[in-house]
Amino acid sequence: MLDSYCQTQNYKAALLLFAEMKRSGVVPDQLILATVLSACRHIRHLRTGKAIHSYMLVSHILINAHLSSALINLYASCAKMDMAEKLYNGMLRKDLVSSTAMVSGYAKNRKVEVARSIFDGMPEKDVVSWSAMISGYAENNQPSEALSLFSHMQEHGVRPDEVTVLSAISACANLGSLDKAIWIHSFTENNGLTKILCICNALIDMFAKCGGITRALSIFNEMPHKNVITWTSMIAAFAMHGDGKSALVLFEQMKKEDVEPNKVTFLNLLYACSHAGLVHEGRSLFRSMVQEYRIEPDIEHYGCMVDLLGRAKLLQEAVDLIESMHLGPNVAIWGSLLAACWMHDDLKLGAFTAKKVLELDPNHDGASVLLSNIYAKSGSWNDAEEVRGVMKLHGISKETGSSWMELNEFAAGGEKHSESDKILLKLDGKLR
Description:
Belongs to the PPR family. PCMP-H subfamily. The chain is mainly alpha-helical.
């Protein structure tokens, strides 16, 4: 029964059944304990896993290779690499499953070099171990290493599976190389993987990030079956490339196909409207999201709307929206409005907004610099000197020669940066 629950991924039911079994006085054997530990791993239930481990030690149950692997998998999945390493080092023979768990665990904890040393020391490797290492590189922003290992995997005669290919596609997307994207797309076609929905969705996202919007659209159009992720990925692709109108047209097609949008769909639509200056459409979408689809906006949705209204010089409407938020506005929200105030020369509102940013983050370099500039521009020299005094105290220096046009030119490049991001990129030296 436990095994049946685990096979259907009903892991919580498996743990409840195990608890009932213990209460009834039935003594679990090694196979049952390994199964329950596997359930704990899948739902990251460390407390129960540790309790089972303690039970095995107190009851003097022989912890064989199978149980050791299950425990290592549990601790590695829950980022308890000290416990996993202790068990792993105590194994007389380090089997494939345990070694792969260690590779995956270290990679997930950003210790990619340690993961690679274990991987290189494995006498045998299967598709799961190769995938774990490739995924580790991809998730730790080392796309070139991920793709290089993907090639080595094939040279060693190991056929990549769906998980491996998804990691390779993710690496291509992060690398931003269209040539590599075309190469991995050819691989999926030659190996009959383009019939898998999640792979096609990932390919659309990859080509969008690599500048191949036409190829992304071609994959989208050829897909016989599409889910909400497919439609959202293509909408995001248009939004990423500044084609707001195409994103809206696609959304209308999506509704005709009776595919219900989710929060991510609306976030990308609002982003598309913001960067295409489609104020009326953005308002309508935001209203539709709340009233028609009953989706509660996240802080990111409000951020897109504030950015949209701010770009269009509808500053008071942006303020009204912020004041109506059911969430407390964060630094990014006020920062977006601050950027719009500076852009449209609304010094009074700009000073108010800069103070809001500094209330939330007193050491916010970009807001301090802009507040000083706003006071100076409006002739409030005493206030400007006071802000500069605080800046000097905190080690913040005013960067000269920064105009709004320079900020826009500096931040140009098609990435998802709000106006506040652009200011911070220049004045703060990094994106917040």
